[in-house]
């Protein structure tokens, strides 16, 4: 595993066998907290309509145990979302955070048509829902302490929403996907063929979308879906980026370097020897998330 902390270490990475995490982070990642009978942890399922009336998101709010208000983590899955990262949601909840997860419209049974633009709008809608005073009061959410996290495509959605909301307390990216960069590559026949081959198995959970249509959207909206631009627009706030060496790790390392070079002294992260789903690093990833959440103001 390659792990990075702060600007001085970015270009001189050290190799170690295991991730480093404090005991408290490890405990929250793998140990259940005591039950609070008066304020038990529980899930709340609901449907979050899109403001334009063209779909909705099947959502789940994972409420942490204990009297509130609690900080909240908004967690986005990728494309199409086979890896839900719900173990991360549970770990954050054990650490005292409410967690909101959802399926973008047109994905996994959520009403509407899927597109990258719709998913970005859905991300903003979900963040606004957490900020709504009525929801904050009803569910014991501390609107001053909201962090956003995303895996793969969800990394762009998290960055997009966080960049547009200056009150977001932190941004956590997991092998984030540069939609615009890969969309631009479909301008060639070879690039489009590679896109079709790579994403052929991703379409069954998605409604109202085609592979070629999504390629066209990403290609024509390359500037709109520029992940680096969105992370830089997020500014100097707390940022963590973890990349998978077997997939988008190089892109994520470059993204972290770009953030540091732009002046973000609170950027941290790592390049880990694992696959896109962090299949053999799930406890390590949960520990890294919980540790990072504990550093937020």
SSE-based structural type: alpha/beta
Q: What is the CATH C-level name?
A: Alpha Beta
- Give the strand order of the largest sheet, numbering strands 1, 2, ... along the chain: 2-1-10-9-8-7-5-6-4-3
CATH superfamily: Alpha/Beta hydrolase fold, catalytic domain
The mean pLDDT is 91
Distance between the termini: 28 Å
Give start-end ranges of low-pLDDT stretches. 1-23
Number of domains: 1
CATH architecture: 3-Layer(aba) Sandwich
Total DSSP helices: 12
Order of helices and strands: EHEHEEEHEHHEHEHHHHEHEH
Specify the helix fraction band. Answer: 25-40%
Main beta sheet: 10 strands, mixed
Number of strands: 10
Secondary-structure map:
Elements (H helix, E strand, L loop, with lengths): L1 E4 L1 H4 L3 E2 L7 H8 L11 E8 L6 E8 L6 E7 L9 H9 L3 E6 L12 H16 L1 H7 L1 E11 L1 H11 L6 E5 L4 H6 L4 H11 L11 H10 L6 H8 L4 E6 L4 H13 L5 E6 L9 H12 L4
Parallel strand pairs: 5-6, 5-7, 7-8, 8-9, 9-10
Antiparallel strand pairs: 1-2, 1-10, 3-4, 4-6
TL;DR of this structure?
By secondary structure, this protein is α/β, with parallel strands linked by helices.
């Amino acid at each position: 595993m390659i792990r990075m902390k702060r600007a001085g270490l970015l270009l001189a990475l050290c190799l170690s066998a295991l991730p480093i995490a404090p005991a408290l982070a490890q405990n929250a990642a793998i140990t259940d907290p005591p039950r609070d009978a008066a304020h038990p942890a529980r899930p709340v399922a609901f449907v979050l309509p899109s403001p334009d009336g063209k779909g909705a998101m099947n959502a789940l709010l994972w409420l942490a145990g204990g009297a509130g208000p609690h900080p909240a983590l908004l967690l986005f899955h990728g494309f199409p979302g086979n890896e839900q990262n719900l173990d991360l949601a549970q770990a954050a909840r054990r650490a005292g955070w409410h967690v909101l997860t959802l399926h973008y419209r047109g994905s996994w049974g959520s009403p509407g048509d899927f597109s990258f633009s719709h998913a970005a709008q859905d991300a903003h809608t979900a963040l606004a829902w957490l900020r709504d005073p009525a929801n904050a009061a009803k569910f014991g959410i501390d609107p001053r302490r909201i962090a956003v996290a995303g895996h793969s495509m969800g990394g762009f959605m998290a960055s997009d929403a966080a960049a547009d909301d200056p009150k977001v307390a932190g941004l956590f990216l997991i092998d984030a996907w540069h939609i615009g960069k890969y969309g631009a590559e479909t301008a060639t026949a070879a690039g489009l063929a590679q896109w079709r081959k790579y994403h052929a198995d991703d379409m069954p959970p998605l409604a109202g979308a085609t592979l070629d249509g999504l390629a066209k959207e990403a290609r024509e909206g390359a500037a709109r879906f520029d992940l680096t631009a969105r992370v830089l627009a997020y500014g100097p706030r707390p940022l963590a980026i973890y990349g998978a060496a077997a997939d988008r790790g190089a892109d994520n390392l470059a993204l972290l370097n770009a953030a540091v070079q732009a002046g973000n002294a609170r950027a941290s992260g790592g390049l880990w020897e694992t696959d896109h789903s962090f299949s053999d690093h799930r406890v390590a990833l949960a520990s890294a998330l919980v540790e990072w959440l504990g550093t937020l103001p």
